[in-house]
Write a structure and sequence with these properties.
alpha/beta, Rossmann fold, binds nicotinamide-adenine-dinucleotide, seven-stranded parallel β-sheet
């Protein structure tokens, strides 16, 4: 088995003067991205459907709440996005960066997927990206600056390693929405880009030892991605210096899918 490693947030990119909203920021990838942007000097609103975990992350970054706050945000709810925007603008004056990270994978055999389950997965993984881009693209266009980063999946590019069809289709839709909004906003100072990860360390908790070994065997790099690695890529896309990425999807899959 490949050696496990992870790296602390190191603030390689400067976010001084910038404000960021991260969805699903209470743990995993979202938490790592929140830590990376905060380490670069940014103010971060850590949001999650589970406010308690978001609060823990925000408190660990800044117990005083000056540079990190926790917000309740269920990405299925347009009203929650609007409330988050209004709260960040009230506290910090503007929203510069939005990372649409919250997502939900359910592995169900194809013939067992009900119409209701299909819709639920699409709501969390794809409609959420539309709602967020719809709301924040307007805010960012008006202020002439913005960075939107959508966490999609290898499953949305080639079906992935262990994904079910509704998850794969929802992530493919999120990649297309990234391109749509990127082109609509190009030239306005606002960029929209995506990252398409293969297996990440966070998935191990949901897999059996056999499944973990099988995935490690399939990935040419021989391991899962560390959350610090995707956080670094998200920081690049979210930074001032990421301004020439327009509608890109960064492949981070350890060699599973080369194009
Ligand atoms: N883990 C992987 O191997 C992998 C691979 C490819 C893509 N991804 C994607 O990366 C992103 C992060 O994955 P992770 O492994 O850190 O996930 P995770 O399950 O560890 O964390 C997800 C977070 O999102 C929150 N969340 C769930 N539903 C929500 C909702 N409706 N509204 C707001 N927040 C909600 C959860 O409370 C949790 O804090 C997801 O979009 C996922 O689909 C993950």
């Amino acid at each position: 088995m490949a050696e496990h490693f992870d790296l602390p947030a190191n603030g390689s990119f400067s976010f001084v003067g910038r404000t960021a909203l991260i969805t699903g920021g209470g743990r995993g990838v979202g938490e790592a991205i929140a830590r990376e942007i905060h380490a670069g000097g940014g103010k971060v609103a850590v949001s999650d459907v589970d406010l308690a975990v978001a609060q823990q992350v925000a408190d660990s970054l800044d117990p005083g709440g000056a540079s990190a706050i926790a917000l309740p945000l269920d990405v299925r709810e347009k009203a929650d996005f609007l409330a988050a925007r209004d709260r960040i603008v009230a506290d910090w004056g503007k929203v510069d960066i939005v990372v649409n990270n919250a997502g939900f994978a359910k592995r169900t055999p194809t013939q067992d997927i009900t119409p209701e389950e299909f819709d639920a997965i699409v709501q969390i993984n794809m409609r959420s990206v539309f709602l967020s881009c719809q709301i924040f693209s307007e805010h960012m266009r008006e202020q002439g600056y913005g960075r939107i980063v959508n966490i999609t999946s290898l499953a949305g590019q080639n079906g992935g390693t262990v994904a079910s069809p509704h998850y794969a289709a929802s992530k493919a839709g999120a990649i297309m929405l990234t391109k749509y909004f990127a082109r609509y906003l190009a030239g306005s100072g606002v960029t929209v880009n995506a990252i398409a990860p293969g297996p990440i360390d966070t998935a191990k908790a949901r897999l059996s030892a056999e499944q973990i070994a099988r995935v490690e065997g399939e990935v040419p790099a021989g391991r899962f991605m560390a959350v610090s690695e995707i956080a670094a890529a998200a920081a690049l896309l979210a930074s001032d210096r990421g301004g020439f990425f327009v509608g890109a999807t960064l492949d981070m899959n350890g060699g599973l899918y080369l194009r």
